[in-house]
Every structure is written in structure tokens, then in C-alpha cells.
Amino acid sequence: MTAAGSDELSLYLWSLLAGLPLAYALVVAVVGRPESQYRWKRLSYVGCGALLGLVLNVLLGLPQSWFLIVLGPTAGCWLAVAILWVRSRSVGSNPSDLRPLVAKSKASSIQGAFSERLSILIALVLAVVLPWQMTAQRVRTWADLAITRMHEGRFVAAYDLLDRIDQLSGPKTAATVLPDMSRKQLETQIRQMIQSVGGVEITEVEGQLQKVRLLLGLDEFELAEELLAKILRDHPESFEAFELAGLMYQFQDRWSLSETSFLRAVELVRQRDVRGESGHQRVAIDARLWSGAAYAARKRGAYDRAENCYLKALEAAPGSDKARIHYVFAQFLEESQQALKAAEHARQAALLEPALYQVSAQELLLRLRTAHLGCFLLPRRLAGEQAATEKKMSPAAMKDD
User: pLDDT tens for residues 247-259?
Assistant: First the structure.
């Protein structure tokens, strides 16, 4: 199953599960009422109306999110009808006869009716709110992933994510969460890449590597893998080929192969003659390769190895790259529940590149302070250091100096 199909299936499953509390509340309410108007046949009429709402969603071409929101109450209503029908058939009587009737006072009867209606209302709200929240969360996840794909140069993957956002929540939502990305812009870039692939001369290894980069940007992994195999066979000393192999395996979620390829590229960089490269270029290459190996190790669950690779990347990184690696390292440490270390690296990223990471680092620190074990240790120490740094850099402090 593709990633898109898996995401869509999970949304449908969550919507169906959201209807379970409503089904329970309706069954309890119907069984507990002896009056004929609460019988399961009347409830089936409500289910028919909900089904009509689903059909109208499809006919009117509304976003998929509306269908998912209506699906929860519909599933709950029809599940209740099915349960009541089966139970009525098993005892040979109406569901209203399933519970012994006990004489109640007028006050207790009113109180019971209010409690049942309240439970139905709460369950109905849950059946609507849960799919809505899941949809909103999925849109945010896809938007962040689309931005990442754009930075990687994978315009076809970014286009697919934009298309999925449009189908799920409508074009207006996509324009809101991704104001700097448009379908027309992506189509233009994809056409340019396709034209470039046809115009690349592959007689030299540099042209072959360039074609592989373009194929990866178009998500043509099979063609890229065939060409990479030829390059590695003819030029086994090319660290660029192993780096591209690491990226290709990363894009395919083949994490062990990705990590192995990046580490092999590191070894080749150490062995090769770097007379044509400046010291700055060399350390930038080392930092990039160690970062790739760290990310692959992180995704396959080898946290100790990932942390070691991130530390090597920080050691090798030039000043312009340190902030990015600090922030990525902080995200990894947050994921591995190392809150204090994560906070420290997030703070370092914000200090080195405040324009890029100040807001993101503050959001990460907020998550660390509210959702992680030991979060009570974070606020004063880190906030105090941050305040001291801001005070030191303020115009008034510089004037006093």
C-alpha cells in the first residue's frame, strides 16, 4: 500500500472509531426507554438521513474532510441500529422490552432522560470533533513535509502532497498553510526538470551524477538506481555517488542502506586527494555526510549511533551550518526524550541564527516544558540564560559598555 493510501485509510478508521461512543450512547438510550418512539426503527430513519449527507458530500464535490466528519456520526448511528436489531431478534421482542420496567418518580424520569440526552450530545460532538482534529493535524503534517520536499528538490513529491491537501481540505486551506507554494509554480519546475533530464550529457561522470540528481527530484527512483549502479561500478571511488545513493535510499525509507552509503562516502572523502577543494568545502562535505548518516540511524531506531553521528557533524560543520545541525540535533534529542540536551541545542541554534531558528527554538522549548519528563528543570535556567544574552546584546547594554 502506498503512503497516500495508508494515510487515507487511517483517517477513515479514526472517523469510524469516533462513532463508537455515539453507538453506545444510542443503544443505552433506546434500551432504557419503553416508549415506542425510541424504538430502533425510528433510529434507522436518522441513519438514512446521515447516509444522505454522505451522498450529498460526494455529489457536490466537497472536500474529503466534510465526508470524514459526517462519517463518524453515520457509523455510530448505524452500528447502534445493527446492535439493537440483533438483540431484538435474539429475544424476539422490541428493544424496549429488554430491560425490566421499574416504576420511577417523575423527577427521576426527567433526570434520566436529561442524562441520556447529554451523553448522546457529548458522543455526537466527539464523533464530529475527532475527525476534524485529525484532518487538521494531517494537513499540518503534510504542509511541513511539502516544505521539506521543496528544500530537498523533490518537486514531484511536494506536488503530490499539495494535491492531497487540496483533496482533503480544499484549495483555500492549501493556500493558507503553504502561501509560498502554488500548483502552477510546481508544475513549471517539474517541466523544467524533465527538459533538463533530456538535455544532460552523460558521457562524463559529472553529467551522470547530475542526471541522477534530477531523477531523484522527479522521484524516478528505479532509473536513478540503475544509473547509480553503473556509476559505482565504473567509479567506485566517487563519494558523490555514494552520497546520492544515501539520499535515494533515504527517500525510499531504506534506512540501513542509506546509513551505510553515507558512511562509505565519509570514508572516501577521508581517502581522496582534496587538493582542488578548500578547507571550508571539505568540512562542509563532512558535516553534510555525517548529518545524512545520523538521520538514517535515527529513523531506523539506532539512537546511540545517531547521537554520535550528530556530534561528529557538529564538530565538522562550518559556522554557517552549525545552527541547522544544532536544531536538527535538538529535534532528535526531543524525540529520544533527552529534554535538557535538546533544550541546550535548540538555544544554540537560536543564538547562532536567530532569524531562522528563534521562533522554531521557542516552540521546541515550549514543547519540552509542557510535554516531557523533567520539564520543570528547564524554564529558569534556559530562560535566564536567554534573557542574559538578550540583555548583553541590547543597545542599552552596548552603550553602557
Answer: 999 999 999 999 9
